[in-house]
Structures are given as C-alpha cells and as structure tokens.
Design goal:
Number of strands: 13
CATH architecture of the largest domain: 3 Solenoid
Order of helices and strands: HEEEEHEEEEEEEEE
Helix content: 10-25%
Number of domains: 2
Distance between the termini: 54 Å
Strand order of the largest sheet: 1-4-7-3-9-11-13
Radius of gyration: 21 Å
Mean pLDDT: 83
Largest sheet: 7 strands, mixed
Length: 170
Amino acid sequence: MKTSKKLLIFVAGFALVYLIVGLTLLRSEIQTALDVENKQFKEVSIGQFNKIKFSANWKVKIRQGPKFKVSLASKETAILKPELTIKDGTLYMNLPSAQGKALQAKLVIPAFNLKAIEANGNTTIYLRGYQSDTLRVNMKDKSVFTVKDNKLSHLDFKTSGQARIQLSAK
C-alpha cells in the first residue's frame, strides 16, 4: 500500500475515534442534565434571610418568587443530612459529611431581598431571572457562579482559589 493510502486510513480512523468520543461525552452531559431536572425535591420550612452562606458541595438554583422557599433533593437529603440555620439574617447551608457528593437545592427569594452570596469549595450556583439593586458575591475554592437573565444594578464579585464566574445576558 502506498503511503498516501495509509495516511488517509489513519486520518479516517482518527476522525472516527474523535467522533465517537465526542458523542459519548455529549451523551453523558445530557444524561446529567436530565437527572438534575427529574429529581424529587422536598420543601424545607425556613424564615426570612438576605444573605446566603454555603459550605462545600452544593448545587443550587436561585430564582425570584413571591415568598421565601428552600427545596432540597429528597434522596440526597436523607443521606447527607444538611444543616440549614438562620442567624442575623444569614442563611447558613452546611453539609457536615459531604464526602465528595453534592446536594442539590432550589431557592426562591422575593425581589430585592438577597444582598450577598458566599460559597466555598466546589459549590455551583445558578442565579436566573432575579431582580435586585445590589448583590455581593464571594466565591472560593473551585466554586462556580452562573448568572443569566437578571436585572442587577450593582454586582460586586470577590473570588479566591479557582472560582469561576459566568455572565450571560440571554
């Protein structure tokens, strides 16, 4: 066989492997997203707060709503036993023994009430469709903060470690 045919077969094989790996990764991402959307959440009774402080390993979606509401993924809640406390207007969300597992939560907060968010180690926060004058965000150690479709007059960020912030208008 000529060298050009060998090269053509090699390139075609490499492209096929690249395509299969890409499709496999895409499928796993889609499956993860579906698992997140199909989880059963249980509402937890909680008072009013204007700041949130997360310990490590949380996956949280925050949106605007008519009243304060916190919902936790019911299966993981039984295993991880999170501690939710309010002290001086701050909601503390702690996972005593996360062991690398993340607990999913959904928070609904009335407009203009949320003033500050602080997240530690490997916490992912999605803030979507929220309206406020001022919001201070403090991200630490591999935390991710994603903002989409919000109306915020003043947004203040402070990061340390390998924190990541993703901003999107639409």
